[in-house]
Design brief:
Layout (H helix, E strand, L loop, with lengths): L1 E5 L4 H13 L3 E6 L18 E5 L5 H9 L3 E4 L6 H6 L2 H21 L2 E7 L25 H20 L3 E6 L1 E3 L8 H10 L5 E3 L5 E6 H14 L5 E4 L4 E3 H11 L8 E3 L14 H7 L8 H14 L1 H17 L4
Helix pairs in contact: 1-7, 2-4, 4-5, 6-8, 6-10
Length: about 325
C-alpha cells in the first residue's frame, strides 16, 4: 500500500514511519507542517524509493485533496498535543485538531480512501487514583483541557463521517507514549535530558498522577494491526499495562542514570492536572490478536534512555529553546 501519514515528522508519527518501512513493503508519504514539534532529522536515512516528505498544512484543502487521492490509506497522527501549551494558547489546537481533521476526512470521503485516526486516552478525562476501573471503548468522553477537548472533537467528527457519509475509518485511542524521537518538552525526555545535562528534574505536585505508558514501537505495531484487520467504524484502545505514577518515573530515570532516586524538586501542580489514565486494551488483543513487545516499563525506559544518550545531536538543538519557552511561560 501507499500510506499518507500526517504528522510523520513528529514523535509518534516518525516512529510509525520507521516501523512501516522496516517491517512491511508499503511506501510512505509524510505530510507535516514542520512546526517546532516536527523534525526532519527524525526521518533521516529512510529509503528514497519508498519514502517522501511533503511540507504542508493539513488545513490546506487543495494539497490534502491531491495527497489523499493518491494514497491507499491515510494514518492521521498530526496534532497539537502539549497540554501546557493548550492552556497557554488554545487556538492552534482548534485549527489543527478540529479543522485539520475535518479537511482530511472530507478528502478521504471524496476519494473513498481508507482512514485511520490516531487519538488519545485523555479524551476520557481521568480516573481516581484508587479506582480499579480502566478506560474502555464504552467510556464516556470527559476531556479536561483545550488539548483533550479538541482531540475528543476530532474523534466525534470521524465517527459522524462514518455514520453519515460512509467514511472507511477506524479510530484508536492510545495511552501515553515514550521512546525515540520524542520532543524534549515532554515529560520523560525532558527529565532524561535534564539529568544528562546535570539539571535536577522538576515534578508537578506530589507526583502521584498516574499515566499508562506504552513504547512508541508498540503503538506503531498496534496501528498497523488495526489498519490491516480493524473493522470499519470501530474504535480500539491501545495500551501495554504500563501504569506508573510520575514520581516513580522520575525516580527510575534518576536510578538508571546513576543518580540518587530523590535528586529532584517538587513544583506547583499544573492547572486541571488529570489524576490517572489507564487503558483496557482487551478488545484489540482478543479481536485482532495484538500484543506489545515492551511489556516491562523499566526495560522500555532503559531502551529510551540509551537512545537519548546516543542521539544528543538530535535533541540538543531543541533543548535550549524549549527550556527558555518554559521559563517565559512561568512553567516548571
Amino acid at each position: 500500500m501507499k500510506l499518507l501519514v500526517t504528522g510523520g515528522a513528529g514523535f509518534i508519527g516518525s516512529n510509525f514511519v520507521h516501523h512501516v518501512l522496516d517491517t512491511t513493503d508499503h511506501s510512505v508519504v509524510v505530510l507535516d507542517k514542520l512546526t517546532y514539534a516536527g523534525n526532519r532529522a527524525s526521518l533521516d536515512g529512510l529509503p528514497a524509493d519508498r519514502f517522501e516528505l511533503v511540507v504542508g498544512d493539513i488545513t490546506d484543502a487543495a494539497l490534502v485533496d491531491v495527497l489523499v487521492g493518491d494514497a491507499d490509506a491515510v494514518v492521521h497522527y498530526a496534532a497539537e498535543s502539549h497540554n501546557d501549551n493548550s492552556l497557554h494558547d488554545p487556538r492552534p489546537f482548534l485549527d489543527t485538531n478540529i479543522i485539520g481533521t475535518y479537511t482530511l476526512i472530507e478528502a478521504a470521503r471524496k476519494h473513498g480512501t481508507r482512514f485511520h485516526h490516531i487519538s488519545t486516552d485523555e479524551v476520557y478525562g481521568d480516573l481516581e487514583l484508587d479506582d480499579p476501573n480502566r478506560f474502555t471503548e464504552q467510556t464516556p468522553y470527559n476531556p479536561s483541557s483545550p488539548y483533550s477537548s479538541t482531540k475528543a472533537g476530532s474523534d466525534l467528527l470521524v465517527r459522524a463521517w462514518v455514520r453519515s457519509f460512509g467514511l472507511q475509518a477506524t479510530i484508536s485511542n492510545c495511552s501515553n507514549n515514550y521512546g525515540p524521537y520524542q520532543h524534549v518538552e515532554k515529560f520523560i525526555p525532558r527529565q532524561i535530558t535534564n539529568v544528562l545535562d546535570g539539571v535536577r528534574p522538576k515534578l508537578y505536585g506530589a507526583g502521584q498522577n498516574v499515566r499508562d505508558w506504552i513504547h512508541a514501537n508498540d503503538h506503531s505495531s498496534a496501528v498497523l494491526t488495526i489498519l490491516d484487520k480493524g473493522v470499519i467504524g470501530e474504535t480500539y484502545l491501545i495500551g501495554a499495562d504500563g501504569e506508573q505514577d510520575n514520581k516513580t518515573v522520575v525516580e527510575t530515570i534518576l536510578e538508571l542514570l546513576g543518580q540518587p532516586r530523590d535528586a529532584y524538586d517538587h513544583v506547583t501542580d499544573r492547572a486541571g492536572h488529570d489524576l490517572r489514565y489507564a487503558i483496557d486494551s482487551t478488545k484489540l488483543r482478543t479481536e485482532l490478536g495484538w500484543r506489545p513487545a515492551f511489556q516491562d516499563f523499566r526495560a522500555g525506559l532503559e531502551d529510551t534512555i540509551a537512545w537519548y544518550r546516543d542521539h544528543q545531536a538530535w535533541w540538543r538543538p531543541q533543548k535550549a529553546a524549549t527550556e527558555a519557552r518554559y521559563q517565559e511561560q512561568g512553567q516548571a
